[in-house]
Amino acid sequence: MINFRKGNKDEFAKLPPEAGLDDRADIIRRHLAEVFGSKNLSFLIGSGCSSYMHEGNELGIPTMGPLATEFQATLQGLPGLPGFGAFVTPEQRDALKDRLGIDLTHEDFRKNLVP
Known about the structure:
The protein is mostly helical. It contains four helices and four strands. The strands form two sheets. It has a two-stranded antiparallel sheet with strand order 1-2. A two-stranded antiparallel ribbon has the order 3-4.
């Protein structure tokens, strides 16, 4: 059975018991059309959301790696500002690995934020 709630309101509550999937789909469509018709609708789409690796080449929107590299290069080029190591220390990397099992040096993370 399919359910559809908007806040704490069951949008299918007024449907008769014999209502089928098409009746329920119509209610969902109406609510989605109302939301997507809003003048104040925004989407936040992050870097890498449509990234795809094919034969070693990244296609689509790139991951955060290029942005992180550029950011780190900018930091290193400005006098008096700390480099990347000041933001993620070896101790913090070890703590993430030991406590949460997150290894920032693993290949899965290397293309992303870790230099």
